[in-house]
Amino acid sequence: MLVKTYGSAVFGVDALTITVEVSISAGNKYYMVGLPDNAVRESLQRVESAIQTSGYRMPRQKIVVNLAPADIRKEGSAYDLSIAIGILAASGQIPADDLESYFIMGELSLDGNIQPIKGALPIAIQARNEHFKGFILPKQNVREAAIVDGIEAYGVETLAEVIAFFKKNSPLKPTKVNTREEFLKNIGNYEHDFADVKGQENIKRALEIAAAGGHNVILIGPPGAGKTMLAKRLPTILPPLNLYEALETTKIHSVAGKLSAADALMTIRPYRSPHHTISDVALVGGGINPQPGEISLAHNGVLFLDELPEFKRTVLEVMRQPLEDRKVAISRARFSVEYPASFMLVASMNPCPCGFYNHPEKECVCAPGVVQKYLSKISGPLLDRIDLHVEVTPVNFSELASTRETEKSESIRARVIKAREIQDLRFENHENLHYNAQMSPKMVRKVCKISDAGQTLLKTAMEKLGLSARAYDRILKVARTIADLAGSEHVELEHLAESINYRSLDRDGWAR
Predict the structure, then answer these.
(1) 341-350: per-residue pLDDT in tens?
(2) Does residue 126 fall inside a structural domain?
(3) In this structure, which of 34, 203, 238, 385 has its CB flanked by the most CB atoms within 10 Å?
(4) How does DSSP classify residue 173?
(5) Cα 102 vs. chain centroid, distance in angstroms?
(6) Are 499 and 444 in contact (CB under 8 A)?
(7) How many CB atoms lie within 10 A of CB 395?
(8) pTM
(9) Which family does it belong to (predicted)?
(10) The domain containing residue 149 runs over which residues?
(11) Residue among 51, 50, 40, 44 nearest 9 (CA)
């Protein structure tokens, strides 16, 4: 007897419908076809044990399982439940009437329990697009699938529950999640706050500018100056995710298996901080079975690279294209996948190996030329993609001991949102252009017009401070963001002057 059940395979952040065809006939062997990997091939032992533990029999006949389309490689253990139900239906132990109406996915334990899977959200979206009635999946993943309207999501814990459902002995109750209510419930609920930071008002101002214009930023300062503490609080002043961004971000984390059972929808911007020993594949994504990397997990959020010069140069260089294109394409011989990667890069570094170059109190012990060599670990093309270079100095005791209340993230975020609204209006007729950091050189000339006095100031600064040519556009972009924060229609002299101060690493002699 031939029976079909339905599941899905995830490629990139999208899913493809997989038909699990099970045929039982005379014979005594078990065949798995349709380009299965080892995890899929090994499903026989898990399926057999789970079926027997649930009180049913494994047929001792020829069983052929085909995973169609047969030219696409099937990976992972999520097909166990589809295969088990297909075998039971093909052997006449359960009715096959309703199987065509459901996606069935889940990994089976030997005792019949069902383990979680990856990519439940894109699979649920695919099931809805294919007009299936419901999606039966592990209970740990049901909330992320339930946010998809137009399809019933049934969370199950054991194979016996699924069998009872198809035998109509015990109905399953669909999980309901109010997507908008879930979205609004935790929006803006951050663990950290800028009110926790004592002093560092100039650094807070720089991060406010970075958040308002979507600019990448690098923090340079000695150990213990507060670089990491400040970076952790940057997501709290970014505009809240809208519903589309929340769904897009949740989808990526679902594919990577990073969502907890309690999460249905990501409502705060992600913050990713990989260790400097990370590989280039782990950062951008890929591998034998391609998975999203850290830059994609930081999509719509912040990627923080602490101690930037300690990262391998090859790791840093692979970020250059994603920083420009805001997506990453992973190409293999048989297929290619694409992951979104629109993130804000925040990097921090010591100014030298000992950490105390330019320190107001401690003396740098590095040999001549060592500081420049240390900074040269970061390539010019990468620095070219970082708009703000901010020097962080240590906080003195009086500021640390002060009981004066500092500004909360909520107040700063309100100003950032207002500036972003100005930019949304400015770029409303430009596709894929949403904030100042994304402007092309041509757009900079059009939007960031400055007066003759401004041109003179910029020329003088570039000559006297020895600013590089690549700093020109960056200064204008940041100045435009500062003007937006001030509610100014034009880029004024004070906006340009403040912007020039954020190009530390471009100054001749800074590290000599």
Answers:
(1) 999 999 998 8
(2) yes
(3) 238
(4) P
(5) 30
(6) no
(7) 17
(8) 0.88
(9) Belongs to the Mg-chelatase subunits D/I family. ComM subfamily.
(10) 2-177
(11) 40
